[in-house]
Amino acid sequence: TVTAFNKAWRNLQETAITTEKPKLHYLNARGRMESIRWLLAAAGVEFEEKFLESAEDLDKLRNDGSLLFQQVPTVEIDGMKLVQTRAILNYIASKYNLYGKDIKERALYGIFSVLPSTENTDTWRDAKTALVKEKIKNRYFPAFEKVLKSHGQDYLVGNKLSRADIHLVELLYYMEELDSSLISSFPLLKALKTRISNLPTVKKFLQPGSPRKPPMDVKCLEEVRKIFRL
To answer: Whole-prediction pTM value?
Structure first.
């Protein structure tokens, strides 16, 4: 409704109250929040998570005006309640200097953002698996291998860690879960994965007990369906 939209918009604009750590509102699962977790972790930012455990929890967020478009994820940061995954990622990348130093680098990052979303990788183990593997191996991985080879630098853009590197390495890990052989023909991608994984902040995120979420299982999928009333 218009009233709900106005309330959500006011909440988005408020900056009176700030929290020490960003607070993430989502399910205790990967989904659309996992790339946000990866980016915050790589930036060395500690965050809190408020998990949705029931449909009523989601209703509460919607009814109190926290969700501008009535959807999660939402992240409380710098006094704002940000929504929409892309907008949240853009804000975090800009805030923590992971978005390129100038418009040229940001334009290159825009080109590299063709990476397939990892939010649905938990469903890639069905009939779509073969198609996904074919696209990853024959389209995406060769393109990024070529980029790394063309400039001989350690990172995709500007020889400096950026959001593009983090998202690519996140995808590499997901693809290894799907088929560990997919990356075998791409030595520069393998080297990038190792390099990024050894960064202290990322290494910490990859350890057991971190906020990184495991692949979705049947039980988790059922919980998702209940919360979203699917």
So the answer is: 0.86
